[in-house]
């Protein structure tokens, strides 16, 4: 464990820890999204049904990954935050910087989740059957 500014805690982890948190076995379903505007935008991807628990937790907590350490959150992967090389293998438990509540829902998006979605540089190490 390492100290982290603003009351957070860094937890050292290994790449094996990342694989350990994935559900096994998992069940995949195809999901599609269509947006009809001036042009048609389509996106299709595989959704693991085991992710439902995470989505339920995010819905219940207003965007947090876990309800066990509220108001703090846990992020096991720090990219795309520019962290020193010796901290890239860490997870963080901290109170998120969050975007203001969306008017239609009681959701305050964690800034880190948004950055990961928009600027992902995640690379696959291997394909898991």
- Give the radius of gyration: 17 Å
How many strands, what sense, and barrel or not for the largest sheet? Answer: 4 strands, antiparallel
**Termini distance?**
33 Å
Number of helices: 3
Shape: globular
| Average pLDDT metric | 79
Helix-strand string: EEHEEHEEH
How many strands? Answer: 6
Strand percentage lies at: 25-35%
Assembly state of the chains shown: single chain
Number of domains: 1
Q: Strand arrangement, largest sheet?
A: 1-2-6-5
Detail the poorly predicted runs.
Answer: none
What structural category arises from helix and sheet content? alpha+beta
> What is the helix fraction of residues, given as a range?
10-25%
Summarize this structure as a short list of keywords or feature phrases.
alpha+beta; two-stranded antiparallel ribbon; 26% strand; globular
Describe this entry's structure for a reader:
The chain has 129 residues and is an alpha+beta fold. It has one domain. The protein is 19% helix and 26% strand. It contains three helices and six strands; from the N terminus they run ββαββαββα. The chain has helices at residues 15-20, 52-61, 111-118; strands at 2-4, 8-12, 28-36, 40-48, 73-75, 90-94. The chain has a four-stranded antiparallel β-sheet, with no helix packed on it. Strands 3-4 form a two-stranded antiparallel sheet. A hairpin with a 3-residue loop joins strand 1 (2-4) and strand 2. The longest helix has 10 residues, at 52-61. The radius of gyration is 17 Å and the shape is globular. The mean pLDDT is 79.
């Amino acid at each position: 464990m390492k100290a982290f500014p603003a009351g957070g805690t860094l937890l050292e982890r290994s790449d094996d820890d990342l694989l350990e948190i994935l559900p096994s076995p998992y069940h995949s379903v195809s999901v599609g999204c269509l947006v009809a505007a001036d042009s048609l935008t389509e996106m299709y991807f595989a959704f693991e049904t085991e992710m439902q628990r995470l989505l339920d937790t995010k819905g219940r907590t207003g965007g947090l990954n876990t309800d066990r350490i509220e108001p703090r959150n846990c992020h096991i992967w720090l990219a795309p935050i520019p962290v020193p090389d010796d901290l890239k293998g860490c997870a963080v438990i901290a109170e998120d910087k969050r975007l203001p509540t969306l008017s239609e829902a009681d959701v305050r998006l964690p800034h880190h989740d948004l950055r990961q979605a928009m600027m992902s540089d995640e690379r696959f190490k291997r394909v898991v059957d």
